[in-house]
Design brief:
Blueprint: E1 6-7, H1 25-40, E2 46-50, E3 64-70, H2 80-85, E4 88-94, E5 97-102, E6 107-113, H3 117-131, H4 133-147, H5 154-178
Parallel strand pairs: 3-6
Antiparallel strand pairs: 1-4, 2-3, 4-5, 5-6
Helix pairs in contact: 3-5, 4-5
Length: 196
């Protein structure tokens, strides 16, 4: 692909299904977190629940998104074999990011470098949506609207959300600057809920 993205297994066409928030998603994340932590030990700097399944009340595809922060994303030998042995399959390789997923396609792990914009953006986006009702409702409506369309592949659906996600991230960055938001301790929210 033009941006250096490699899709292992090629393009996939799958039905996009958005379901109501499931209170069991945090427990599913905890299971995957334990599996990753056991496989990687201290190589895993952070393991965070991100994406829509990490936002109470937000409808989502029933796929648990996880951010895994490591010291050097390019040094795949330090994390990829252990993740593969734990049952994850490499799906995406791109500069600054790898994505592995379960064989059952119900969890995907986004590997990024600790301190990277990728790590910060995902955690900030999650925290903002947990606090800001208006953006949470608007994002849910957009996802439902887009899921009703036919897409050539799941990446096209994700790309269609990108402009609105970018707007949300800008509002979240403004909020972060106006509060004391910083990278939270795993599972916590930093800052205060201004701009609701």
């Amino acid at each position: 692909m033009k941006d250096g993205t490699e899709l292992i297994g090629g393009v996939e066409q799958r039905e996009i299904v958005i379901v109501e928030y499931d209170p069991g998603w945090p427990a599913r994340f905890a299971q995957e977190r334990e599996k990753i932590a056991t496989a990687l030990g201290s190589t895993a700097i952070r393991i965070d629940h991100v994406g829509s399944t990490a936002v109470p009340g937000l409808p989502a595809k029933p796929i648990i998104d996880i951010d895994l922060s490591v010291n050097d994303i390019e040094d795949e030998a330090t994390y990829l074999p252990a993740l593969t042995d734990a049952g994850y399959c490499l799906r995406v390789r791109q500069p600054g990011h790898r994505m592995v997923r379960t064989v059952t396609l119900d969890a995907q792990v986004h590997v990024c470098q600790t301190g990277s914009d990728w790590e910060t953006r995902h955690l900030l986006f999650r925290d903002w949506l947990r606090l800001n009702v208006a953006d949470r409702v608007a994002y849910a409506a957009l996802k439902r609207q887009l899921a009703a369309r036919d897409w050539p592949d799941v990446n096209a659906y994700a790309e269609a959300k990108s402009p609105f996600i970018g707007e949300i991230v800008e509002r979240a960055r403004e909020w972060a600057r106006s509060t004391d938001w910083s990278l939270p301790i795993e599972g916590q929210i930093s800052g205060s809920p201004r701009g609701k």
